[in-house]
Amino acid sequence: MKINVQIPKGEQFRSFYMFFIIASMQLGVGLIGIPRIVFMEAGHDAWISILIAYLYIALLLFVMLYILRQYENADILGVQADLFGSFISKVLGTVYILYFIFYILSTLVTYIEIIMVFVLPDSNAFVLGCMLLIIAIYTVFGGLKAVVGVTFLFFMFSTWLFVLLIQPIRQMDFLNFLPVMDKEIIDILRGTIAASYTFTGFEILFFIYPFVANKEKIGKPVFLGLSYFTFVALLATNIAIGFLSPAQLERRIWAVLNLFKIQTSPIIERLDYVVIAEWMMVAMPKVILLMWCISYIAKRIYNLSRETSVYTSASILLILIPFFNEHFIIQRLIDNVSRVSYGIVYIYPFLLLPLVLLKKKTRKK
Amino acid sequence: MRPVKKRANQADLPLSMDEFENKLETEVLNSQDLSFTVYKQENKQVAVFYIPYLVDSTKIEQQVLNNLLDMQTECTADSILSEIPLSSGEQVSSIRTIRNKLTEGYVGLYVEQENQVIMYELGKTEKRALEKAETESVVVGPLIAFTESLESNLNIINWRMNTPDLAMEKVEVGKRNPKETRIIYLKSVANETDVNTMRQRLSDLEIDMVEDIHIIKQYILDSSTSIFAQFVSSELVDRSMYAIKSGKIIVMVEDSPFALIAPSTLFSFFESTEDRYFHWTLSMFVRFLRFLAAFVTLLLTPMYVVATTYHYELVPSQLLVSLGESRSVVPFPPLIEVFLIELVIELLREAGARLPTKVGQTIGIVGGVVVGTAAVQAGISSNILIILVTMSALASYATPSYVMGNTIRFVRFPLFFLAGFYGIIGLMFGICLLVIHLVRLESLGRPYLAPLYPLRLADFNKAFYRLPEQTKYKRFLSYRPKDKQLFNKERAAKRRDIDE
Amino acid sequence: MRTAKLIPLFILIVFLQACLETTQIEKLAIINSRGVDLIDEGGKRMIETTLIPYIFDPRAPDMTSLLTGKGRTIKQARVEAEKQSPYPLVPGKINIEFYGKEAAESGILPFLNTHVRDAPVSDIMQLAVTNQTAREILEIEQQSVELNRTKYLQDLISKEVEKGTLPRITLQFFTRLVQQVGIDPILPVIDVVNGKPTLTGAAVFQEDKYVGNISVKESFMANLLRQRLRGTPIDVGVPRENYLGEIDYKGKLTENEDSIYLSLMLHTGKGKIKIVDADSLAFKADITMKLDLLETSIPMNIKSEDTSRKFERDIEKYFVREYENLFAKLQEVNSDALGLGRKYITSRKGSKTTNKEWMEKYQDAKMEFDIDVTIVNFGAID
Prior knowledge:
heterotrimer; B: alpha+beta; 4 domains; 5-stranded antiparallel β-sheet; 17 helices; 47% helix; elongated; disordered N terminus; C: alpha/beta; GMP Synthetase, Chain A, domain 3; 6-stranded mixed β-sheet; 4-stranded mixed β-sheet; lipoprotein (chain C); signal (chain C); Spore_GerAC-like (chain C); Spore_GerAC-like_C (chain C)
């Protein structure tokens, strides 16, 4: 396996789009639940937990970029191949594929569950899964250009949803945030850990890095993307805390959707339905990008054709989706995926860093 | 004597007059069409032959026959050439070439026992005069439209844009019946890659013949499965001129009054030449209106299906009563109801377009009013739906491009079927697919959604809104024109201070 | 080509959609108003629910009809009521919900539970209490109000909310306050007066239990402590003997009237509760009101700034008295509608004060009112 990858100029994209890729990977269905998840641990100091998560991830992204910059044009697979050899790299690549498949699965089933609870109670999870996967497959077959474009446009087309938060903001009760630092530090850190599932997604950087045309400028959009998501998460959490009473927030699984429920318009009275449908544009870029990643890794380590890997992973997902039809099974899936993500996403890059540095030193000698 | 082109001598000639006539008649396919007259001049026989409907007979009389009969010198090929001083005079010696020339509208003169035939081009092509554009109607600005004659089209272009920079490359398209096709662009502005791509695509074409530019268009599309038109085709000279000026390429073919403008973006279909002539606030307003109209066309009836089939919660409480009341008499599910009414509208549109203008208008109005009212009274449709369908049909005609208007109306059908099948989620699924499709689409290798994706904020001034012309000092950058600057911003922005 | 491969999947979707049940708008009985009562039936406590749904029958003269059902749970009662309806009853458009006196006194949270859980139910549904039974109100509404009857009550209440005399009364806001420690909700009371539904006052709650009645003006005063208000009409009485010099009325005055009544409009007003001393539970409310004078019960000649100041002082005194009465009333029924507890809890870091603990303390709370009134406008005459 080659360490550095050659990307033709036509397939590269400008670093500017990294902002949307990172932000879109982190946005998604997780955002809907984040207020409650963090609130359960950190109480109304949830915003501190989120800020701590932000700082940690900013450091992590710095490390990830540092590792990638040691090579000419490598992705994580190349780095692993350089450090551990081809075989172990393949094993690790497979781990990534599996992780991504389950990550997609957790995203899809959560979104499907939301649709079934809020909009279409009689709908069929399999059909909904089919529709969502068609969107992903259709985009991935358009190549990375289309993947990036769809990510970008979906991001743009769904940003207007924030406008609908005006009404809940006006009804916020700021007394809900007092007293500050009500909880222990340990609770706040626990809140940070709870938020981590929602924050994952930036690991895409490890795979998409070689495709960026002007790499020297990649830092700014990546950090801005993370900051954007943090801002959104803070916004959602704080509005939820201010708008809902603690007892309400503890019981609402999808607190963010509750915020949209009081907004009306003269033409469409219940905008929460529109929001849930529109959320497809928030949730899908993640699935699309991960699907692209899977096909990219499969091509790189097994030399599988893009079509084969996409169709295979889509079929696997489609078969799995109907089995995750109960709320608690879905919760267990999410818990497990986030547990794996602690290792793969939050700790692994820090383990990699000394090895890369060591390798660099020996190479110099 | 004028220098004339000499052709390679072949053994076809000389012949006696009868032999020549026979030979010509066997060669020329529609021999009964050939007019072959023999004149006696001095002691020589001179044959004048042509195909009557291809030549201008008054010209023959005035310029050929008069001169020929007045000739004082002895009649030979050379003397005829010098006595009848028409610039197109040629000496031809092969029967086959003569045949070809005849079908192109030449007149032949043959002096007995000579080994040359003299041919003059006195063809006449039927063409119509320059007229107003029919399919793209504008209120303000030049109205002149292209015609079927490439010659006069090139003439107009040259007249409108008289610069040595203008390139009009010639490409022959069609195997059996090659037709002259021109690629027209500004050398110093148009992107070379685009020109090369276009040239390549045109010369790679292997088709029998081209009836119209739209045939070529369909062959050189980037994606033939896409319903979205990837090139703007316009009969408005003004529009083509603007395209050339902004660095695009236009393609014209003989016999077609349309120019193909490439590359094009989705947003260029919402442009009208008038936008540039109006005050910018007005044209900005109109531009937004058109985008709004497109959204309305796409989403109005599908939203009706969504609200009445699955999500009654969406309907405002005030409207719920009247909607429910009028729906309650309709025996069909909303999807069928919408489909029926949409079908009626489409039929009216198609019938109106096919019938002569005056009858067509009547059909449109009478049909719309009568069918709509009757449908509501008969309980086939709810009155709210009639309003919605009418609104969305109206909105679809606000798109300046007829093709794009049709496309948008067509795309609505799958959308409301999806809405009928899966409610608001189905509708959203359809919209997502539409967005993805548009992202994947290219026009002449350039992204179709430019400048939205790839994002180029500088181009928004042209594609979405229109600030005053003074702010548009750059060309449409998404197409990477060679010459980016339209004028110097600094110099243009320099102003005098008050009372200076 | 790749697109062509997706076509079978499309067809699959179309076929599988057969499982999706449509809910066509005309084939639903869309509930518009709901009433909940507790009744005694053979010694058993039963829930009776009264529903007004839209039933879209082109032949029926009336689109709305009144359905009632009884049951042990609210769901059961609805199923019972559904037996009288040709179409399934759906709750997505309930705009207003009434609670009879008994039902409200027993606590309304159990009745709301199903609403909160059910996603299609609108969060901006309005809640109201009646001192009669909800059924009576809805029946009266059905019989007496001629014009657009289903919207009548809704507009009656939302008008008051817009003016600021009533706090927000949406389902979302009510459930938020019910479960919030240290603040209790207020809902409007609608009774039948002279055969017409009329807003007679406001109900104060202790958590979700209806415990006492306050007037509309008192509800405004409580609301002023919660949010910034504007455009609310206010009536104030000031002692007449202070203004003998300014009275501009030559005719004979009614003898036994010793107050002058002022009709005012709240220009802007806001109030804030502060803690003076957390341990002794001393609170203080700072309220500022900017008012426009619209009308006086006796024509007056407001010549100088002094008169204006005098008015302001008297209005302040009036409101202090009213606020003290209100506070005493609320303490008596043990309802913290003003939200003192919220202030108290936010000042106690790390303590997990429960509602019960606070309610014990609430009885000992003392409150001072500091009101600052400015009259900004006197109309076109002075």
